Amino acid sequence: MAKNGKTGDGHRVGAVRERSQTQTPSGHYVKRDTNNGRFLDVKTSDTTPFKGVRREKK
Fold it and tell me: How distant, in Å, are the alpha carbons of 3, 8, 25, 47 from that of 11?
């Protein structure tokens, strides 16, 4: 399991497990559960990827 350090330091120790992300045609990133393939969250604040979540191959 990934561990977070101090609050507000901007990074985590280790990767987020059982998650992946892909980019939508609009440029936003969407997080997906690798167990069942369901979409979990869309990052609409900006078009940068989620931190610590692996990217899916195209």
Answer: 10, 8, 27, 18
